[in-house]
Amino acid sequence: MRGVLGPLAANLLLAGCGLTLLGGLGQVRRSALELAAALGLAFLCGAAAVGQLTILALVAGIPFTALTVTGVAIAISSCAIAVMWRRGVGLAAPRQRRPGGPRGLAGYRGILLAHPILTAFVLVFGIYAVIGAVRADVMPMSLWDGWAIWARKAILVTDFSHLPAAFFNTAPYGASHPDYPLLLPLLEATWFRFADHVDTQAVHIELWLLLVAFVWAAAFVLARHGARAITWAPLLLLVSIAGGTWTQLLSGSADVPLAIFAGLGVLLAGYWTTGGRGGDLALAALLLAAGANTKNEGLPIALLVLLAAGVVSARSPTSLRRLALAAGSVVIATVPWHLWTAIHHVPADPDVPLARAFDLPYLFARADRIWLGVKGLHNQLANQNGWLYVLPIGAATAIASLVWGVARRAAGFYLLTGVLMFLMYLWAYWLSPEPIRYYVITTDYRVIDVIVFVGLAAALHLPGESLAASSDTPRIRSSVRRRRLATVRRPRGSDARP
Amino acid sequence: MAAVAASAGRGRWRADRYGARAMTLALEIGGVLIGFLGVAALLGTQLDRVTAIRLAALMVPAVLAMSLATASLWPTWQLLIKETGRDSKLSPDEAALAGGTAARVPVGFLSWAAGQIPSSSTFFLQGRRSPVLWATYQLMPRREVSTPGGADWVILYASTVQALGAARAYFEPPTWFVPGFGIARRR
Questions:
Q1: Contact A170 B146 (CB under 8 A)
Q2: Quick one: which of A183, A369, A403, B136 could link to A51 by a disulfide (CB 3.0–4.6 Å)?
Q3: Contact (CB, 8 A) for A327 and A303
Q4: A156 to B141: CB separation less than 8 angstroms, yes or no
Q5: Minimum distance, in Å, between the CA of residue A463 and any CA atom of chain B
C-alpha cells in the first residue's frame, strides 16, 4: 500500500509547495477552479524548487530521507506563505462571482459545455494520460542512459542517504557521467523513499507526470495570458503524443525532462518579452534553473534564453537589471552541485572539454567536424517521424509573425533562442574529442528535444498574440463593404451596376 | 567501443544523413509559410489584409496540429497498450535486470555474486570490461575499485584466477558459478 500512497503523497506535497510558491508570486487566485487549473504548473515549480533545495541539503551533508524532502517543501511553503501574509492576502483574492452564476460541479460542467474545444482536449488528453501512466507503471529501466546515469544516482542516494563520493570520483564509475546534475535522480529517489523500496518500473510514472504537468502547466499559462484553447490545445496534444516525447521520456533519460523545464521557461520568458510582467520572469528563472540542474547543458541553455530575451527586449535599465537578476539566480542555483563536484574531484565530462573551448589551434585542427555536426542536427530536426512537424510549425509561425509585424519581439526571441541553442550544440560537437560520427549518431536525436520545445513555445504563444492584435470582430474588407452597401441602397428594379 | 559503433553506424550515416534531406527542414518550414499565405489570400477576399493575415497565423498551426494529432492519436494509443501488455508479463526480477539482459550481460551470474558478497564490500571485476558498467549498477551498493589490491572480493568474469597475476595471492580459491565465472574473497 505504501508503494502507491507514498509516492502519491510525495507528489501532492510537491504540488502543494508549488501552489504556495505561485501564490507568493501572485500567479493564482483563491478559487477552487483556478487552483485546480494551476496544479500542473504548481507541480513543476514544486519539483523544481524542492529538488534544488534538496541538492543544497545533500551537499551540506543533511541525509536524504522522506522527512528531509517534507521539511524542504514545508520550509519553501512557509516562506511563500510569509510573503503572501506580508502582502496582506492569502492567495490572491478570488474574482467576484456573478450573482446567480454557476457554482460547484455545475459550474465546471457549465465551463466545459461552453468550451467544446477545451472539453475535447481535456477528455482526449485525460485518456492518453491514463494510458501512458499504465504503460509507465510496467516499463522496465532497460535503456542505457536510464540505468547507467540517472537511475543509478537515484538508487545510490536512496541506499546511502547521502552522496557517496567514491561512486562519483573513481575510475570504474567514470563512464556513468558522474558530474551530471542531480535534479532528476532526486525526483526518482523521492519516489523510492516515499514508497520505501526501489521500484525501477513504477518510477517511470514520476517521469510521465512531468509530461502531464507540462501540458497542464502550458495550458494554464496560455489561458492566463488570454490565449484561446483553439490556438494551443491541438499543439499541446500533438507534442504529447509525438513519439520523440514519450519514447524518450519513458527511456529514463533526462533530455525530455530538460526540454520540459526549459521549454516552459522559454514560453514564460517569451511572455515576459511581450508583457514585461515580473511574475513571468521569476517563474521562467525557476524553471530554467531546474533545467540547469537536470543536465549539464541546461545551464548554458538557460543563459542563452535570458540573453535572447535581453537582446529583443532591452527597453530599459530595469528590464536588463531584472534579466541579470534572473541569470544570477540560475547560476547560483547550480553552485551547490558544482561546488560538491569540485571539492570531491569528480571528473568533468570528457565528452565536452570546456578547458579547450577557446583553444584556437585545437579548434581549427578539427574544423571539419562543424559541417558534420550541422548535418547531423539538421537531419534530426527535419525528421518528422518523431516530432510530427512541431518545429516547422513553430519556426514558420515565428517567421510569419516577424514578417507580418505581429508580436515581433516575441517572434524574434523564439527564433534567436532556437538558433543560439543550435549553435551551442554545434559548438559541443566541434569541441568534443569523441569520433564525430559516433558522437552525433548517439546524441543528435535527443539533444534536439529542447530546440523542438522552443519551436513549440513559439507555436503556442504567437497565434494568441495574433488574435489579440486583431479586432474582436473581423473587419470586412472595405471594397466588399462598399459593394454590399451599394447593393442595399440600389433602388428596386434598377439594373444599374454598382 | 566507439570505433565499433562508428563503423556500425557508417552505413546509416551515408544512406540517410547526407542524401536528399539537405533542404528538408527549409522545405517543411516553407510549406507551412505557403499555407499561411494561401489561407491569408483566401480570407483576403472577404476581410481586410491585416485581419486576414492574423487569422491565417491563427488557423494554420491549429488546423495542421489538429490533423496531425488526430492521425497519430490512435496508433500511439495502440502502441502504448501493446507495449503495456508485453511488459506487464515481466516479473519484478526480470524487469529490474532488463537493462543487463538487453546488454547481453549474464545477469544470473551477477545476481548469484550479489547473494555472496556483503553489500558493504568492495569488488574488482577481472576479465572482459564490456559488462562493467552494468555490473557496477546491478551490484550496488557494493563498490567497484580500480585495482584488485584494494578489493574485498574479486569477480572473475570469463577469466581465470591466474589472470590476476601477483594479486591472486591476496584471495582465497575462487567459488565458481559456471566455469570462467566465479568470485573469490580476500584472505
A1: yes
A2: A183
A3: yes
A4: yes
A5: 5
